[in-house]
Amino acid sequence: xxxxxxxxxxxxxxxxxxxxxxxxxxxxxxxxxxxxxxxxxxxxxxxxxxxxxxxxxxxxxxxxxxxxxxxxxxxxxxxxxxxxxxxxxxxxxxxxxxxxxxxxxxxxxxxxxxxxxxxxxxxxxxxxxxxxxxxxxxxxxx
Length: 142
Known about the structure:
By secondary structure, the chain is mainly α. It has helices at residues 6-13, 17-25, 44-58, 63-75, 80-121; strands spanning 3-4, 33-34, 40-43.
């Protein structure tokens, strides 16, 4: 089992040491230990937990919700249903994000094609008015 310093983990993950300290202070790394000198020591289990935390963070989950997850992990098998439900909810949220990003990508693809034609022609004059964007994004968010 590997044991890593905060500097090593920061290098391995790209997560700043200050963020790792914050996660520990907030209780998001509940199994993290310290060596005899008081330095944080990360195990492979801590790295696995960190990977999950980063994944949850990337889904837009609030730190308070992530903290709830880590508390459930500490409580063990009694919270399996809650953790499963939480991940099902995260999955649904990510699926919605992906669907929205596909809509954004459709607009970007259309604009790439528009500008490819304009660059090839040396002007966009003949394309104006023919730029039919996919009607996929709500305009009230602008």
